[in-house]
Amino acid sequence: MLVGRALERLWSTRYPGFIFGRPLSRGEAPVFIYHDVEANAFAADLAFLRDNGYRTLTTEEFVRRSPDGGDEGRAVLLTFDDARRNFFDVALPLLREFDARATLFVPTHWIGGRRDDAGNVSKPLTDLFMTWEQIRVCRDSRLVDVQSHAHRHALVYTGERLVGFASPELLERCPIYDWPMRQEGQDERLGRPPLGTPVYLAEPLLSASRRILENRMAVQACREAVESGGGTAFFGRRDWASRLRAVHRAAGGRTECLEGRRFENLVASEFALSKELFEAELGYRPQYFAFPWMLGSERSVELAAEFGITSVFGVGLDYGRARRITRLPAFGRLKGDWLRCLPGKGRRRLWEIIPEKVKGFLVQQHLAH
Known about the structure:
six-stranded parallel beta sheet; three-stranded parallel beta sheet
């Protein structure tokens, strides 16, 4: 299943001509996406751009860039998703060293250090992400344009097909965003779930058309089976998966489908809550929006416009859809490891990168979508 998804995504991704050794088209300004970066590798990317005469654009410069390029010269847009601590610790100092610009897309739910009306500051949910104070430092550097990456950056269940359980191995291997949003009593929970939690077919919230609310009786039964079976030790049994599937089948209960107006309100909250926190913590509304995982549904794009977003960004497999979206300008992005395929001295060739990319597609596949 994972290999099939990897090949499908590989086939769906649009690769521009410069990757195959061709020159850039007139006016072409590629957009690259990073998450965590390693200092030497990112410094080498910035040195490549500097030595070959590439200008790093602000988001506004990129969006307003003339389609035919004019005499604007070589240029790229560097984007970073998730507002990870790595950006503050590693990327920002290098941007300063090279006097380079970048756009930071922030998922507001995950950012610690919120200020309430009484002046109290919240603790970070996890050390993986930056605080609002660090984000303000980025904003004030005049090198970083801080924009929205939604609020929760969430997956939601969209089908009842069981794809796995929260085991120690999966909790270690799968990143924090790979675990779909789930109900715990009256609350919503994100991130890594308790051991034994069932995981169902899921899609990005902003790309989905409905949400399936999990069978709470089955979830509780599976968690209790793991706890009574020794917790982590339960997963040392060779038949642990079949045992949990049997518990899940026998649990009874039912799922609920969230759709129509109720689901749209959940989608709209991604834009509303992000806007609210931007205004409270940074003093402005976000103007540009990077969809988590891929460009959102047509309704999500419409809602983005309704909340003041003027341009949206996706990923490599979104290039085709980006041309068909009419409500807002939409742009695909390529992973940063393609950057040194740009024309210039020290250019990497496709044959050098293919083995790395194929390995990445096969290994870095999502758990539930």
